[in-house]
């Protein structure tokens, strides 16, 4: 005889000995059977899915590291070949080792200058002058370039003057700087400032003027005012071009400083190179040249890092 059983508030007749039908758990949600319970010994599915993902991430990271290492090897191959030729040719007599000593001898001279403290003294003097002129050039040229590029009346007023001075070599004006400011630090810093200001100024003006017109129209259609438009649209879009000028100015700050230090200076890497050449200390001269190359390369890499920091929104 079937006995009634209440399930979910409904009386259901269940015959004795009747096996459970398929789908009983779905039809009667209140009943829980042993075959509906999870198996405690079963391995979690999440771990099985996480293992291939972790392996994929590891392989991807290894691939990126390997690609970066191979790229570094390719980029440094030409430098290694240059140093090998520099070391080999003087030793086999192709060039006179009196005028072009092997690279290893120049490194020994560089180390001797470092131990004596002369290299540190000249390095400090050059870096202070270079950074002073370079920093002043950024502080003056970037705001002026933004104003010239954004306001047409200012551009119409200053463009003829800029065209006049941009075509005048800074080296040609070095005697003028010395006559006006003397042989002290001020003339050298002002000379570096003048040489570095032009690439920064011109690239800043170009960056502002070459912003995509449709981008400006879209921003204005959204109701942005002139100040907000300049701050949110124009300035971020001009950052890559501005940093191109800053990187060029960073190279100029080292190059023109050497010329200034060869005239009337008592310290600096330019003075070291000129004095060593005049005294026929050829390995010391090359040691100064190597130092200048390393300083310029390090300066450029530092500016690249800063550019990436301020241009993280760009698609690479």
What order do the strands of the largest sheet run in, or round the barrel if closed? 1-2
Alpha carbon gap, first and last residue: 79 Å
What portion of the residues fall into strands of 2 or more residues? under 5%
Query: Radius of gyration, rounded?
Result: 36 Å
**Tally of distinct domains:** 2
The name of the CATH topology of the largest domain is: MetI-like fold
- Shape summary: flat
Low-confidence stretches: 6-17, 22-28
Count of β-strands:
2
CATH architectural category of the largest domain: Orthogonal Bundle
User: What CATH first level of the largest domain would be assigned?
Assistant: Mainly Alpha
- Main structural class: mainly alpha
Q: Give the helix level as a range of percent.
A: over 70%
Pfam family, one: BPD_transp_1
Family: Belongs to the binding-protein-dependent transport system permease family.
InterPro entries: MetI-like, MetI-like_sf
Transmembrane segments: 131-152, 164-183, 252-273, 285-306
Give the topology, please.
Blueprint: E1 3-7, E2 10-14, H1 24-27, H2 45-92, H3 103-116, H4 118-150, H5 152-166, H6 174-181, H7 185-209, H8 213-221, H9 226-261, H10 269-278, H11 282-310
Antiparallel strand pairs: 1-2
Nutshell version of this structure?
With 316 residues, the chain is mainly alpha-helical. 73% of the residues lie in helices and 3% in strands.
Describe the protein's architecture and organization.
It comes from Sphaerisporangium aureirubrum. InterPro entries: MetI-like (IPR000515), MetI-like_sf (IPR035906). Residues 123-307 form the ABC transmembrane type-1 domain. By secondary structure, this protein is mainly alpha-helical. The chain has 11 helices and 2 strands, in the order ββααααααααααα. It starts with a strand and ends in a 6-residue tail after the last helix. The chain has helices at 24-27, 45-92, 103-116, 118-150, 152-166, 174-181, 185-209, 213-221, 226-261, 269-278, 282-310, and strands at 3-7, 10-14. The protein has a two-stranded antiparallel sheet with strand order 1-2. It has 2 domains: 35-100; 103-310, Orthogonal Bundle (MetI-like fold), CATH 1.10.3720. Helix 4 crosses helix 10 and helix 7 (185-209) runs antiparallel to helix 9 (226-261). Mean pLDDT is 79; it is low at 6-17 and 22-28.
């Amino acid at each position: 005889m079937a006995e009634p059983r209440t399930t979910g508030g409904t009386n259901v007749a269940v015959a004795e000995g009747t096996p459970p039908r398929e789908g009983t758990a779905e039809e009667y949600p209140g009943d829980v059977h042993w075959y509906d319970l999870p198996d405690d010994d079963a391995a979690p599915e999440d771990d099985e899915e996480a293992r291939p993902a972790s392996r994929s991430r590891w392989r991807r990271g290894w691939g990126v590291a390997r690609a970066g290492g191979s790229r570094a090897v390719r980029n440094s191959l030409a430098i290694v070949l240059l140093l090998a030729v520099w070391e080999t040719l003087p030793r086999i007599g192709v060039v006179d080792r009196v005028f072009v000593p092997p690279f290893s001898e120049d490194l020994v001279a560089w180390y001797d200058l470092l131990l004596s403290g002369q290299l540190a003294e000249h390095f400090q003097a050059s870096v202070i002058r270079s950074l002073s002129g370079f920093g002043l050039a950024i502080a003056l040229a970037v705001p002026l370039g933004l104003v010239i590029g954004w306001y047409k009346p200012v551009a119409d007023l200053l463009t003829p003057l800029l065209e006049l001075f941009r075509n005048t070599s800074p080296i040609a004006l070095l005697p003028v700087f010395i006559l006006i400011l003397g042989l002290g630090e001020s003339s050298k810093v002002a000379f570096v400032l003048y040489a570095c200001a032009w690439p920064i100024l011109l690239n800043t003006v170009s960056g502002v003027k070459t912003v995509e017109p449709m981008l400006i129209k879209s921003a204005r259609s959204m109701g942005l005012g002139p100040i907000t438009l300049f701050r949110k649209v124009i300035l971020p879009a001009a950052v890559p071009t501005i940093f191109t000028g800053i990187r060029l100015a960073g190279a100029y700050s080292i190059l023109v400083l050497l010329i200034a230090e060869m005239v009337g200076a008592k310290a600096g890497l330019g003075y070291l190179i000129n004095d060593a050449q005049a005294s026929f200390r050829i390995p010391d001269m090359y040691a100064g040249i190597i130092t200048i190359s390393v300083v310029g390369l390090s300066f450029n890499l530092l500016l690249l890092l800063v550019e990436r920091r301020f241009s993280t929104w760009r698609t690479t």
